[in-house]
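Hello Y.,

Per our agreement to keep a running log of every chain we model this quarter, I'm adding this entry. I've kept the format consistent with earlier entries: sequence first, then predicted structure.
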Amino acid sequence: MRILLVEDDAKIASFVVKGLRAAGFAVDHAPDGEDGLHFALTEPYDAAVIDIMLPKLDGLALIERMRKAGVNTPVIILSARGSVEDRIAGLQTGSDDYMTKPFSFSELLARVQALIRRSSGVSESTRLLYADLSMNLLTRRVERGGRNIELQPLEFSLLEYLMRNAGNVVSKTMIMEHVWDYNFDPMTNVVEARICRLRDKIDKGGTKKLIQTVRGVGYVLKEGD
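Predicted structure for the entry above:
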């Protein structure tokens, strides 16, 4: 999952970026509203965390321009302004949630995860299921046929993306855009390497293969032989 953070406070930005990446998210950081708008309009994101008081373009104007441009990325406002009027203004502009500073990172993470679940259509469910493979989004526990599978954060994010798109082929470019936080380089084999490691863990033993390669196109989570 890929997150956009628009925050001009370097200390807060570093804290949030490190926390989100440790939780398995790919994160792009913009230090001002203009850069944030550029990212929002040109890159795909599963959620955005946006401060209100930003240089060059304030957060409310940024969100308003995103919505007018047809960008429906779920947004959490992160702001020092905590009055009822400020919250109402933020929500009316087009944000989906509002948090005030100072804040607990664990709460921010939980809200980001909940926002992504709602926007992806899984509602309040905290589990993804496909065949005999299950993923608990809260405990981050992955099991297949009752066997616990230990995954690194990046592997967890990669499998989550495949499970959310189960049955649909996803290209290497799509994977890079949603799981990694840098643009796709056609000369790198990082996706193939990670898929290989993930397949070794998920399709271990005599179980049916779930992670399928569609040559020349990408990958799909689908029951095979």
